[in-house]
Design goal:
The protein has 75 residues and is mainly α. Helices cover 53% and strands 0% of the residues.
């Protein structure tokens, strides 16, 4: 029962603190313009090593499958 209560409190904490994590207006940003003055920064590249990440993901999935299959055969 205690474990479930702690889990419930933790989930509630994560759920209700999402509201507090929104960005607040900075000093001098009292107008409703949104502070969009100036140029945009350069976009971050997301496809630089995507193939390597996918290969690591597949290797990890096969490892977990192998470990699960090995554990189920032992029982």
């Amino acid at each position: 029962m205690k474990k479930n209560t702690i889990r419930l409190y933790f989930i509630g904490l994560l759920f209700f603190t999402q509201i507090a994590l929104f960005a607040q207006a900075g000093p001098g940003d009292d107008d409703d313009g949104g502070g969009l003055n100036g140029g945009d920064p350069a976009p971050a590249p997301i496809n630089t090593h995507l193939i390597i990440l996918a290969l690591f993901g597949l290797a990890f999935a096969f490892y977990k499958f192998y470990a699960y299959k090995k554990a189920s055969l032992k029982q």
